[in-house]
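Researcher: Please predict.
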Amino acid sequence: MRSLKDPRITGLLSIVKLELSGDYSHCKVYISSLGGLESAKSAVEGLHSAAGHIRREIGARLKLRRTPEFHFIADNGIEHSAQLDKKLRDLGN
């Protein structure tokens, strides 16, 4: 979603995991950043501020009558994967 202008939302962000409640009213969104966990935490703060805008945009783009309330959570999945990849490459050399 490139329309977000919050300076805390920078760099490459990735959605690692989604957990949608049974009644589709809440959605936990796990966010990871290539910049590490601190960068992801900063981005999560910006995403929390923009949650209403994000909810409106997703509802309009997917043509949903009701959209879930989003809860953003910082995750270090990308950083962990990059470290694992480096270790595997080091073993190969």
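Model: Residues 13-92 form a domain with the GMP Synthetase; Chain A, domain 3 fold (CATH 3.30.300.20).
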